[in-house]
Amino acid sequence: MSKTFDKGTGIILLIISILFVLESLKISGSAYGSAIGPKTYPLILGIILGLLSLRLLYESFKSKAESKEKADFDYKKFGVIFISAILYVFLLEIIGYVLSTFLFLLIAFQVMEKGKILSTIIISAIFTFGVYFMYVSLLGGSLPKFSLF
């Protein structure tokens, strides 16, 4: 991508991360006196997003020369992933977290790099079930279940 795009994206993501952290601080703490409450996970994600956006800004400003060649933007890939993300949001409550996340990752990975379907299935499954296990089992949260039945 171009350095101008990276700078703009870095600034936008930094603003989003600041808003994310500020809004997560408004979430009430744990009712049971535990250090880990409902605001812990969003706060950590906001901080990570902020650090990564600062890294992107640092890398884009550190680079001296911007390439003269025009970066090709693949509208078809962007459109497919964007529509899949919208469908993911709408289908999350209907078909549940596990199935909708697995399908979204499967589509997104295949759009980004066609082929290697077996590795795509394995990575999508490991990520989906890993996040589900960490959030539900370790943190005691709940995610949308399969609700068609």
From TrEMBL:
Residues 10-144 form the DUF1468 domain. The chain crosses the membrane at residues 12-35, 41-58, 78-111, 117-139. Pfam families: TctB (PF07331). Keywords: Membrane, Transmembrane, Transmembrane helix. InterPro entries: DUF1468. It comes from the Bacteria. Signal peptide: none annotated. This is Tripartite tricarboxylate transporter TctB family protein.
